[in-house]
Amino acid sequence: MSTNNDGVAVASPLRLSIRVFALFTAVYLSTWAGHYTSGDGSIKVAWAKAMLFGHSAEAGSTQTTAYSKYGIGHTLLAAPPLAAAYFIQRTTGVRCEAALYTLMFIVNGALFLGMVAFYLAHFYPARAVWLTVWITGLATIWWPYTKLDFSEPLVLTIVFLGFLILRFGHPMLGMAVAAFSLAIRLDSVAIVGPMILWYLVANRSVRSIFRVAISLAPAIALVLLANYLRYHSVLDQGYGGERFSNPFLVGLYGILFSSGKSIFLFSPPLLLGVLGWKRFAQRREIRSDAWLFLGIWMAQIVLFAKWWDWSSDDAWGVRFVIPGVLLMCIPMVTMLDRRMIVIPVACLGALVQILPVTVGGLDYLILVRSQRFQRQALFVAGQNRIDFVDVRFNPDYSQIMGNWILLRYLVGLPPGPGQPHDAIQVGTKLSDAIPAEVWAATARWDFVWNSGRRGPAIGLPVPASPAEAAPVR
Length: 473
Fold this sequence. Notes:
Blueprint: E1 2-3, E2 9-10, H1 13-30, H2 39-53, H3 72-92, H4 97-120, H5 126-139, H6 152-167, H7 171-179, H8 181-184, H9 189-202, H10 206-231, H11 248-257, H12 263-266, H13 269-281, H14 287-305, H15 322-329, H16 339-359, H17 363-370, E3 374-376, E4 383-385, H18 388-393, H19 399-410, H20 420-426, H21 430-433, H22 436-442
Helix pairs in contact: 1-4, 2-3, 3-4, 4-5, 4-6, 6-7, 6-15, 7-9, 7-10, 9-14, 11-14, 13-14, 13-15, 14-15, 16-19
């Protein structure tokens, strides 16, 4: 034990972080899905296989190269578990490709929480650190994303590792590590950019600018090289038909307050972080850190509010802003003494995360995408197809409601049918819009020990390989 600048006893940061990492590795393993989940991930995996073994990313293709519009960083991180799975299968005959690949996200989830504990343990007592990581790990969107193979959680962990290295005395190495996130997702510039500004404000010199440039060079060179090899152009990112064309206020409202995608609904402890930010920023030794977390959160929201697919479907909540949301949850450490608000918010957050953790975060969305379910049109005759506008803005058709219905079918308590006249007056209930047999066929426990009995939403073929997974933007 040691004391911080206020004379408060704090635990050994490294020892505490190791304990947090070990504990959450066990917790997340208990809810591990162990199977491929997203079309985005399938393309990245296929690209890694092409680089390792010469297989094409296109199913049935005879080419020996693979092309993906996604950042090469995720593919490079996937290569070691895929290589290990290949070696194990060659030597023992046991197929474990999906298991080892998805295990990467379990480790990633626990590693980030361990690093948060390491950071906070320098300034706060162990009890406050533990409560913060418990709430963050089980009551925010972070828990479901230990089961979904998207890039944003990897970006956050890489960036936060770089932040810690930079903050605790190794600026060039830390910036280089954080900059690798650009190779995972180029829009990580909304994270790396504020980090560069944060560093240069505290280190105003030509030498600091030179250090930043040198640190960024490897990641930028990797991105440009990957672009050239794929598109014969260092600037082409493969997103030619996708633009920042969404009305800004629509995206801003959707990300912050919509009934189907609000970051406060999907991560209720974010409210604690926002409320505790001022007290967090009042501590002299972490004041600049508080501004960095706030700057990244706001930069991501502003950036993606204009993106054509601001809601990041298919995903649980808005995955694009996961880094900013989780960083803004850290200041909740200052709110833990206010139990009247902390307890209900943490419980609500945990209940929200139980829904995608138990039945799968994408199953309901795949249902909506794959089949033409109808709802009663209000005030006019006829019916309309349920689409993603309903999912985003109608609370009756939100992901939370869809997963709640799936869970009810799993535990044998399906909702009863609504009254016909109610559909005309207030709208068709989601449980009525999708037939009961479809709900029942889709509802499956999403854990690795029942993966053999589990498939995607009814109406879609069971993927035999990641390249056959349902497409996700």
